Amino acid sequence: MEGGGGPSVDHGREPCPDRIIDDVGGAFGMGAVGGGMWHLVKGIKNSPTGSRLLGGVQSIRREAPRIGGSFAVWGGLFSTFDCTLVAIRKKEDPWNSISAGFLTGGFLQLRTGPRSAAKSAVFGGVLLAMIEGLGILLTKITAPPPTPPPALEGMIAPPQQAPAGPLQLPSAPIAAPDGSAAPFGELPRPDSMPESDSGSGGGGGWLSGWFSGGGANKPAPQPVPELDLSEA
């Protein structure tokens, strides 16, 4: 596509006006080959026994150029209308082809009357719409998937992985405060902890010794004697 609001260019076809010559030659070849194969089969079928092949060849020589010429006229008019619409609309899209098919079909049937020309114009527009729609569908199906944008490094921290290998358990049993050893791999239970002495004589366990003033019977700390440094 050209900058500055210029017309878009379809890189799959020749630019105008070279497109007209290219479409005339392509349409003539398609019509001559396709029509020649059709009339070859028809000539072989309708010829008498013993000269079927000769009849098919003669049918090709008689009908293939005529069909190719008709296709060439249709392709030339279509490309001419297409290039005209590109020059008028300043852009190239499927609507140009559909409108060119409509105009070509109507123009070729003008000598047979307006009713026949209108029918031929509608047929040409619908035919080109189907061709353009099929081309767009095939393009979408065969197009490669869009490449995702590269991930920004350092924006997301990688998840922490657990260290490889089994968990390490203590190699020796854990001893409880009362001197008994807990089973291997287990911590001592609270009920195995020794009870603290209570001042009331009826202690309620090691927790009651913390909150019920169980440390009242403990001996008071001895005062530190002061040293008289004046004699020295």
Tell me what you see in this structure:
The chain has five helices and no strands. The protein is mostly helical and 232 residues long. The chain is elongated.
Q: Can you give keywords for this protein?
A:
single chain; 232 residues; mainly alpha; 50% helix; 0% strand; disordered N terminus
Summarize the structure.
This protein is mostly helical. The protein contains five helices and no strands.
Shape, per Cα inertia axes? elongated
Give the topology string: H per helix, E per strand: HHHHH
| Unreliable segments of 5+ consecutive residues | 1-9, 196-203
| Average pLDDT over all residues | 74
Rg from C-alpha positions?
Answer: 50 Å
Largest sheet: none
Task: Please tally the helical runs, counting DSSP H or I stretches of 4 or more residues.
Answer: 5
What class, by secondary structure content? Answer: mainly alpha
Question: Which quaternary structure do these chains form?
Answer: single chain
Indicate the percent of residues in helices. Answer: 40-55%
N- to C-terminal distance: 108 Å
Work out the strand percent.
under 5%
Number of E-state strands: 0
